[in-house]
Amino acid sequence: MSGGAIAITERAASRRRRDLIENWQAYLFLIPAIAFLGLFKILPAFYAIYISFFRWDVIQGAFRGLDNYFDILWQNSTRSQAFWQSLSTTFTYAAITVPIEMGLALVVAYVLFQKLAGRDIYRTIYYLPYVTSTVAAASVFLWVFHPQYGIANQLLGVFGISPLKWFQEPDGVFQMLGNAAGLAVPDWAAGPSLALVGVAIFSIWHFLGFQILIFLGGLGNIPVEYYEAAKLDGANQFQLFRRITLPLLSPQIFFVFTIASIGVLRAFNEIFVLTNGGPLDTTRTVTLLLFKTFFQQGQIGLGSAMGVLLTLIILGFTLIQFRVLERRVTYT
Q1: To 10 degrees, the CA torsion angle through 304, 310, 316, 321?
Q2: CA–CA separation, 86 vs 95, rounded Å?
Q3: Is the pLDDT of residue 332 over 70?
Q4: Within a 13 Å sphere around the CA of 1, how many CA atoms are in the beta-carbon half?
């Protein structure tokens, strides 16, 4: 072998050794994060799955296999009715919250992206609720919507509207509107309770700033040349928004929709503080039912099975979102 070939072989071997060392160094930096996730996320998840196969009250009992799941889904009429009602409440809460939250965030972000005086101050004000403690903000909301002392009822009184019970009202909003108009609304069309709508108002207010921030980042990445070229072709503001802004903002819209859906489906803090699942269980979502089954009733095996079922439901819903909506996303 010539001297030149030997030198090339040695350089290749040296480069392989250097790459190997760099790879090991990279893995070493990942070890703390992997250990943290494994200890506090992955291990508890697998342990919850293990518990869900047992009759587990205070201590571990007999092995039940999938019976805990069957009891929750259909075998035990009391438990299955509570679970399906809670799941219906959960998706109703998501259906109220996510579309309104995203629509408002998109409009506000589009306005704040324009050249307004004091634009940075407005952006800060809108983001403040998101960095506020959920429990603290929900406690303030309890006072704002207090049936006797709340400012919300005082404002309604200015317009001659009777005080509302807000977070203590189990009646459906459509039924209440119908009664106010003198119309008889059947129970199946009563709609979500006013208490659930109140919780949705809080959720929209609290998480609006995060979504505005994401949309502002997406708007800043759209090249201005597209708008200038469209204006030269005679496009108006609505056409600019529909033909350029919305398609090029679709990755952020898809991301926000996915994150917001997951967040709402697993929401707990605000519901626990504002209503604790009441009144008459009209705001009892699956997370509230899980909490009461696991901690208050001490039925740890059943509670774990509910947690696993909720995880599978959220996972399935997210996969459907990716399957149906991701193909409509425009990546540039």
Answers
A1: -150
A2: 14
A3: no
A4: 8
Tokens of 305: 């099975």
What's the mean pLDDT when you consider all of the chain?
91
Phi first, then psi: give them for residue 6, nearest 5 degrees: -60, -40
Q: Say how many C-beta atoms besides its own lie within 10 A of residue 142's C-beta.
A: 16
Flag whether pLDDT at 306 surpasses 90. Answer: yes
Q: What is the pTM of this model?
A: 0.88
pLDDT bracket for residue 285 (50, 70, 90): very high
Residue 155 Cα distances to 58, 144, 147, 181, 199, angstroms: 49, 11, 12, 21, 19
Ramachandran region, residue 61 (left: φ > 0; alpha: ψ -120 to 50; beta: rest): beta
SS (H, E, C) the chain: CCHHHHHHHHHHHHHHHHHHHHHHHHHHHHHHHHHHHHHHHHHHHHHHHHHCCEEECCCEEEECCCHHHHHHHHHCHHHHHHHHHHHHHHHHHHHHHHHHHHHHHHHHHHHHHCCCCCHHHHHHHHHHHHHCCHHHHHHHHHHHCCCCCCHHHHHHHHCCCCCCCHHHCCCEHHHHHHHHCCCCCCHHHCCCEHHHHHHHHHHHHHHHHHHHHHHHHHHHCCCHHHHHHHHHCCCCHHHHHHHHHHHHCHHHHHHHHHHHHHHHHCCCHHHHHHCCCCCCCCCCCHHHHHHHHHHHCCCHHHHHHHHHHHHHHHHHHHHHHHHHHHHHCCCC
Residue 31 scores a pLDDT above 70: yes
Q: Shortest CA distance to 290 belongs to which of 273, 304, 271, 272?
A: 304
